[in-house]
Amino acid sequence: MRSFLVSALLSSALLFIGGPAFAGTLAGVTLPDSATVGGKALVLNGMGLREKYMLDIYVGGLYLPTKTTDASKAINDDVPKRIVMHMVRGLSKDQLSETMMESLNAASQPAGRAAAPTLAGWMEDVDSGEQIVLDYVPGTGCTVTVDGRKKGTIPGVDVMQALWGVYLGPKPPTSALKKGLLGT
Question: Contacts for 118-123 with beta carbons within 8 Å, 24 or more apart?
Fold first, then answer.
């Protein structure tokens, strides 16, 4: 019995120390527990599922320098950060563009409304398994990457706050997505 316990503990320790670490899986999607944006190491704050009409659309991941459950801090801190949308359903450029325009125009921040046409124009057809990534680097701005292709960067902390506010603000796409991203 004692050798079994020692063996089990050693095996657990080796699994914990060696090999890639994953934060978790949601709706069949596993995101890494860390990312690097602007040379800064980030941790996966949380994962949430975006659903619409009872259909799974994407699994979102929020990466921050340190974990927080405070939406205001996650939105307003001028630090490197990332939002990942890992698609679990294919969407057309038109669907993504329309959603981007609606979301940013509904936001109360003028910077988001001003950036909406540019951001919507960068959208393209995405298939299940592809990702849309929003990276923010202070002093540089928000960079949009669609399926590994960098689409462009829009400068300004106010644009980042408008984008992060879409997901974490008072009117997120769904409360479950917001709760998941904040790890609550």
Answer: 118/152, 118/154, 119/144, 119/154, 119/163, 120/96, 121/97, 122/146, 122/151, 122/152, 123/93, 123/96, 123/97
Q: What is the tens place of the pLDDT at every residue in 108-118?
A: 688 899 999 99
Domain count along the chain: 1
Note down the domain range covering 53: 37-181
Six-digit token pair at 174? 């769904």
User: Could you tell me the CATH number of the domain that includes residue 151?
Assistant: 3.50.70.10
In a domain, 31, yes or no: no
163 within some domain = yes
List pLDDT tens digits, range 50-84: 998 889 999 999 999 999 999 999 999 999 999 99
**By C-alpha distance, which of 28, 57, 62, 37 is closest to 166?**
62
